[in-house]
């Protein structure tokens, strides 16, 4: 993400006058390959909309506001999956954000120089581990641990409503923990970058006025980096919303609204993973396309917002170019 | 009552204390952040050991629940899928990245950059559904071709962005030197710019391959799975991630050990490629995008 200046020679002018035929062919050739990316996005939205049409016509707004998955009677409403996705993602953010921000501060400000890049790399390696590996780790290692924690919590705090229900080990809370581990490297590494992008003068001014290191950080530096850090968190949320394999392996795949942290549940991607291949009823298939469409629209919006916020801190110049 | 100076001294200590407290919290947070990596590595290694032997790499799977056998077909399948993914994804990623780096000072290029970020964030399961509708729904069968296409599609945004970054790092003066000698743009880009950027572009491609090699969700509805040895790209094909998923969720201990062994192979593959990429480009290419 290093910001490097553009090549100084203006190809546009050369393209009109000086350039020869091969140059123009090459420019348009590479453009053809580059333009495939936006085309793929359009294709994605079009295909999903086409697939979802029957479901949109049949269920309309009720699809998102009712909670029923009745294949026999062809009645579908995915509130349970939306609730499951929201609950697991928020839980993941709740767990991951404080840790990520602490680590980002340490890595960008406090750690000795020789330690910074190896430690950042270790945390980033977490992002490289395939989600199926988190899934198998979740099933065999995390689930038994969570089960013990659930039993302990229920004995100590029997009155708290989130801690009701069977202590299976699988369920919303386990999915939240796995998701937290998976989004942690994203939030950490982007926040670290954003904090490092804050001009030195900001912290030096505060330190010169006699502020302690933490006061310089929490005041001028974090305020400057605020929107970028929020962007990093939202980006992490986007990852959590779309994560499939690790979640589907530990959440229990139960199509009801989770009423407690210990409940089994389902998320939108996990519902797709479970049902799409086996869907025989056309309306069910259309309902699944509908779910995918909703999921994609949510992730696209979330990602657009997050990227704009990060750019506004770390790459201000690029935003200005667009205007 | 205490002396007049005491409130200000108390305030001073409070500030110092808050400073130290935040240090400690930040260090603890960093330790917590690194812990999952250590735990996952440890468990994957320890649990994989019983099933990690020569036969795992050279034998076909035994019927579910039976001891012995390996994942030969899944390993070959994953290699085929990665090859197909590279075939689809790399030309688009690399040439698109060159376009953005060399001709990318305009509005269409900004749209392409933005949509590349969007494509990178599309949930992988949805990519699987798209490719299912585009290919599998017409050919009426899961196929390695569809799986490779899905994985290739997931590679495009990563490769585009890394290629753009690497190509931009080539100093402008080198381009100008070539142009001033009368070389055309095409010649400049292919001989001067790309020969300087080649290593980085290849590394970026390897990093993208490492990432899609472990993807499971996009394969569920595209490549499917197969219990036979197959190199036919028009037929369903087994892959390491799908085999891990199927064995981990089936109730047999033998299968579980093999699933862990599969996970171990995937993790080692991904780690080697990530570390090599970091070493080769001195940390310029990031795993997190």
CATH C-level class of chain A is Mainly Alpha
> What's the total helix number of chain B?
11
User: Got a strand count of chain B?
Assistant: 0
Low-pLDDT stretches of chain A: 1-13, 316-323
CATH second-level architecture of the largest domain in chain B: Orthogonal Bundle
Helix and strand string of chain B, N-terminal first?
Answer: HHHHHHHHHHH
How far apart, in Å, are the first and last alpha carbons of chain B?
59 Å
What this model shows, in words?
The complex is a heterodimer of chains A (323) and B (289). Chain A has 323 residues and is mainly α. Chain A contains 14 helices and two strands. Chain A is globular. Chain B is mostly helical. Chain B is 75% helix and 0% strand. Chain B has helices at 6-48, 54-58, 72-103, 107-121, 124-139, 144-169, 172-180, 185-213, 217-220, 240-248, 253-281. The mean pLDDT of chain B is 87. Chains A and B meet through helix 1, helix 2, helix 3, helix 5 and helix 6 of A and helix 1, helix 3, helix 4, helix 5 and helix 6 of B.
Brief write-up:
Chain A contains 14 helices and 2 strands, in the order ααααββαααααααααα.
Describe how the helices and strands are arranged.
The complex is a heterodimer of chains A (323) and B (289).
Chain A lengths: L10 H6 L4 H14 L1 H24 L2 H4 L1 E4 L4 E4 H32 L2 H16 L2 H26 L15 H26 L2 H9 L4 H30 L2 H6 L17 H8 L6 H33 L1 H7 L1
Antiparallel strand pairs in A: 1-2
Helix pairs in contact in A: 3-13, 5-8, 5-10, 6-8, 7-8, 8-10, 9-10, 10-13, 12-13
Chain B lengths: L5 H43 L5 H5 L13 H32 L3 H15 L2 H16 L4 H26 L2 H9 L4 H29 L3 H4 L19 H9 L4 H29 L8
Helix pairs in contact in B: 1-11, 3-6, 3-8, 3-10, 4-6, 5-6, 6-8, 7-8, 8-11, 10-11
List keywords for this structure.
heterodimer, A: 323 residues, mainly alpha, MetI-like fold, 14 helices, 2 strands, B: 289 residues, 2 domains, globular
């Amino acid at each position: 993400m290093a910001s490097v200046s553009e090549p100084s020679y203006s190809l546009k002018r050369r393209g009109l006058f000086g350039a020869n035929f091969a140059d123009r062919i090459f420019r348009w050739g590479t453009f053809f390959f580059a333009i495939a990316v936006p085309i793929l996005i359009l294709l994605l939205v079009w295909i999903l909309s086409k697939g979802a049409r029957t479901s949109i016509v049949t269920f309309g707004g009720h699809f998102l506001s009712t909670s029923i998955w009745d294949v026999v009677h062809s009645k579908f409403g995915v509130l349970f999956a939306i609730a499951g996705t929201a609950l697991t993602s928020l839980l993941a953010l709740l767990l991951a954000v404080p840790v990520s921000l602490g680590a980002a501060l340490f890595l960008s400000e406090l750690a000795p120089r020789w330690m910074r890049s190896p430690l950042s790399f270790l945390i980033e390696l977490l992002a490289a581990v395939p989600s199926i590996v988190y899934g198998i780790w979740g099933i065999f290692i995390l689930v038994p641990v969570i089960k013990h924690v659930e039993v302990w919590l229920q004995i100590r705090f029997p009155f708290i409503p989130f801690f009701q229900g069977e202590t299976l080990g699988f369920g919303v809370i386990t999915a939240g923990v796995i998701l937290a581990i998976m989004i942690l490297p994203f939030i950490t590494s982007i926040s670290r970058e954003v904090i490092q992008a804050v001009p030195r003068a900001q912290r030096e001014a505060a330190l010169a006025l006699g502020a302690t290191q933490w006061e310089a950080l929490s005041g001028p530096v974090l305020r400057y980096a605020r929107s970028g850090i929020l962007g990093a968190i939202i980006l992490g949320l986007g990852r959590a919303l779309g994560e499939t394999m690790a979640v589907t392996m530990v959440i229990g795949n139960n199509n009801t609204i989770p009423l407690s942290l210990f409940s089994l549940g389902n998320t939108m991607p996990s519902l797709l993973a479970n049902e799409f291949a086996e869907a025989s009823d056309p309306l069910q298939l259309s309902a699944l396309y509908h779910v995918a469409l909703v999921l994609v629209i949510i992730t696209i919006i979330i990602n657009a917002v997050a990227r704009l916020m990060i750019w506004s801190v770390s790459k201000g110049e690029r935003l200005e170019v667009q205007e | 009552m205490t002396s007049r100076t005491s409130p200000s001294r108390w305030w001073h200590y409070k500030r110092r204390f808050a400073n130290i407290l935040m240090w400690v919290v930040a260090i603890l947070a960093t330790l917590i952040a690194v812990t999952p990596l250590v735990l996952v590595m440890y468990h994957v290694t320890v649990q994989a050991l019983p099933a990690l032997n020569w036969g795992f790499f050279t034998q076909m799977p035994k019927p579910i629940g039976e001891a012995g056998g390996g994942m030969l077909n899944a390993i070959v399948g994953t290699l085929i899928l990665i090859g197909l993914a590279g075939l689809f994804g790399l030309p688009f990623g690399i040439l698109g990245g060159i376009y953005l780096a060399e001709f990318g000072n305009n509005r269409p290029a900004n749209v392409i950059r933005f949509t590349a970020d969007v494509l990178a964030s599309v949930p992988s399961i949805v990519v699987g559904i798209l490719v299912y509708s585009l290919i599998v729904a017409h050919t009426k069968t899961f196929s390695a071709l569809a799986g490779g296409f899905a994985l290739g599609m997931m590679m495009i945004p990563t490769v585009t962005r890394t290629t753009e970054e690497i190509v931009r790092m080539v100093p402008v003066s080198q381009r100008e030197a070539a142009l001033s000698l009368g070389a055309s743009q095409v010649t400049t880009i292919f001989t001067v710019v790309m020969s300087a950027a080649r290593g980085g572009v290849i590394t970026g491609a390897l990093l993208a391959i490492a990432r899609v090699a472990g993807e499971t969700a996009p394969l569920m509805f595209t490549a499917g799975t197969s219990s036979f040895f197959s190199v036919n790209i028009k037929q369903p094909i087994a892959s390491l991630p799908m085999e891990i998923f199927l064995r981990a969720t089936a109730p047999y201990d033998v299968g579980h050990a093999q699933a862990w062994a599969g996970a171990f192979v995937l993790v080692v593959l991904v780690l080697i490629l990530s570390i090599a990429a970091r070493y080769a480009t001195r940390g310029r290419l990031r795993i997190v995008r």
